[in-house]
Amino acid sequence: MIRFKRVTMLCVAGLLGAAVCLAAALKSALPVKAAADALSVDAESGLLMDAQSGTVVFEQNARKRLPIASMVKIMTLLITFEEIENGKMNVDADIVASETAASMGGSQAFLDANAAYKTGELIKSIIVASANDSCVAVAEAVCGSVSGFVDRMNEKAAALALADTRFVNCTGLPAPDQYSCAYDVGVMSREMLKHPLFFDYSAIWMFDFKHPSGRVTALTNTNKLIRAYEGCDGGKTGFTNEAKYCLSATAKRGATRLISVVMGAESSKIRNAQNAKLFNYGFANYETRRLVENGVGSGADHAVLRGKQATVKGVPASDLSVFVKKNTPAELSISEDVGELTAPVAEGQVIGKLRVFLGGEPVGEADLIAANAVGRLTYLDIVDGFIDKW
């Protein structure tokens, strides 16, 4: 069989006009540190990461193992979100708070022991107010015990290749040999942000947590940046005497979403200022640029054997964007790789891959799908064609 392969290379002028993009060896599939030599944070460690690609643009002691206080709850939430999206939990289902959950200290929603609470309300109290008692109630609902849930947390950490993270509890309360690092917190945060349920609650400033008894607890968001920084719509704070002040926050401006992590600051004011400083650097120097738009192809024709039409056009099944340093020109090229096609071809059928390159380096790919259907050529079609040419 003769393999048909159509490869179309387009330059920046053909696809993006005057757009400019990142040069050299940017690879969106892997975290790659970019230079930020003049930047530092007034804290033990820090990190700035692109939420879409995982590209790290700043790090300071980012692999140093440190206590992270309530940022442990990022993993608690991540596992809970996965349970919900897998259909094993429901936000409207009741969770009965155990005596153990209700007895937790630190930040809490002040749950009543043996009272039933909606799962969604418990999650909201964790995201907004860092409620330790709600974390334990959810953990027990997911795995039957906190120890079983902590095992899940460590299994997930291993699956995410978090080499400098170990969990002992699901709350972040001080515990021997529990630690993480700024880089691992960034990776955990990036995974958590993939779950839309987080954003249903993360920007809530204040709400009344209602108990079955009729009692009400007023809860306020511990992440003050959602009011103080433009574009900040979520995060997870942490504080213990050992960990000092910590925050993993996210902010979005335009198409760019960033994650900033600050650990070991001396005060909440310093912590918030350092997170804002990292965001300012990121938004000033980087942007997310759309390279390929969903449904907009290059116009190339791809041969179809035994089809009523001789060719079919391909279009990308999804958008392709890249996180780039501003004002750095680079050559953009696109290839459409399609193997041998034989009719019938259905509209929307995957026919190949569209790949994007910057400076010769691959930065993303998307399925290439048929823009229209191509029916199979029948015997009557052949006869009719012969007659038309007679």
Structure overview:
It is built from 11 helices and 17 strands. By secondary structure, the protein is α+β, with helices and mostly antiparallel strands. It has 2 domains: 113 residues, Sandwich (Peptidoglycan synthesis regulatory factor (PBP3), Domain 2); 221 residues, 3-Layer(aba) Sandwich (Beta-lactamase). The strands form 5 sheets. The protein has a 6-stranded mixed β-sheet, with no helix packed on it. Strands 2-1-9-8-7 form a 5-stranded antiparallel β-sheet, sandwiched between helices. Strand 11 and strand 12 form a beta hairpin. Helix 5 crosses helix 6.
CATH architecture of the largest domain: 3-Layer(aba) Sandwich
The spatial strand order of the largest sheet comes to: 14-16-17-12-11-15
Distance between the termini: 31 Å
- In percent, how much strand structure appears in the residues? 25-35%
- Counting DSSP E segments of at least 2 residues, the number of strands comes to 17
- Secondary-structure element sequence? HEEHEHEHHHHHEEHEEEHEEEEEEEEH
Unreliable sequence segments: 1-35
Tell the overall outline: globular
